[in-house]
Amino acid sequence: MSSNGSVPASMSVSVLDGPGKLRQEDRPVPVPGPGEVLVRIASVGVCGSDTHYYHEGRIGSFVVEAPLVLGHEASGRIEAAGDGVDPSLVGQRVSLEPGIPQPYSKQTLAGHYNLDPDVRFFATPPVDGAFAEYVVHPAAFAHPVPDGLSDDSAALLEPLSVALAARAAGEVQLGDRVLVAGAGPIGLLVSAVCSLAGAEVTVTDVRAERLEVAGRYGAAHTFTAAEAPEPAPEYQVFIDATGAEPAVLAGMQRLAPRGRCVLVGMGADTIALPVPLVQGRELRITGTFRYANTWPLAVSLAGQGLVDLDGLVTSRHGLDDVEAALVAGAREGALKAVVTP
């Protein structure tokens, strides 16, 4: 193993013991195995899934049955390299892609490694996440970032990757009219990347204060759910970043014939499908599950300043303040909390 020689023996982590139960504990600093690197964590974005695990202890079939470390939007610096890893990587700043697939599964070999059923994903039970001072991670999924990119921005390449996957699923093209439901971090980043692709973007949300920043993320138009104009089939693409059935159904009503509906937000387990609408307009409906092969483009966009990731951060917290980070999203004007171990 190659290292910088200053790695301590123990570290602090934030542990979820069940709904609403957080504690800090000391653990040994992990040792990178073959093909792995040890990363000192610099910044971790708080995702809605982290908040859901904190409040509910589960998301769908994923249940917290044992102590779990949350956090999957992470950046840091490589402090040690395991066997088979280029030792010159020690000291490199990186963004961590949190999903690690089995290398020879059918989906991985087909290029859709996010759909590997045995993927190990940070902060998805029983896999620990990154609310910790150090993690080990495969070197292939520790993506170098330029020095001009902040630690927070490097961490938020993960939600940017979600947005890039959504744009690709919607096949957003130059000149498309795109409707985005939800002006949280994912919806804003979807708006940004669709605008960069040459689309005219409208963003809607139930919270008017969130729409105030949508113009900075490519939105040409906004409206609240309460101020929504009469539905008209005027959009080629509808991307839902809410997971809320009313938002999904309202967005589908606004799709033009042969329009594309992309479901990104996680919320309702089932939605009443308006079959006559889908058939009569020949609508296409698809979902997205995380992302695959998005980091190079995400690094390029953020590194060139084409997407403002730092502008999403509205609060910062230490490992002793993770609970406040997990509930920060409920505050008016809040977008993205980050934890800085």
Tell me what you see in this structure:
- The protein is an alpha/beta fold and 341 residues long.
- Helices cover 23% and strands 30% of the residues.
- The chain contains ten helices and 20 strands.
- The protein has helices spanning 48-56, 106-109, 151-155, 157-169, 185-196, 208-211, 245-253, 275-281, 295-303, 322-327, and strands spanning 2-3, 10-18, 21-28, 36-45, 58-59, 62-63, 73-81, 93-96, 99-100, 120-121, 134-138, 142-144, 177-181, 200-205, 219-224, 235-240, 255-263, 284-287, 313-317, 336-339.
- Strands 1, 4, 7, 8, 11, 12, 19 and 20 form an eight-stranded mixed beta sheet that branches. Strands 15-14-13-16-17-18 form a six-stranded parallel beta sheet, sandwiched between helices.
- α6 links the parallel β14 (200-205) and β15.
- α4 crosses α5 (185-196) and α4 (157-169) crosses α9.
- It is globular, with a radius of gyration of 20 Å.
- The model has no long low-confidence stretch (mean pLDDT 96).
Structural class by SSE content: alpha/beta
End-to-end CA span: 24 Å
Order of helices and strands: EEEEHEEEEEHEEEHHEHEHEEHEHEHEHE
State the helix count. Answer: 10
Could you report the average pLDDT, rounded to the nearest whole number?
Answer: 96
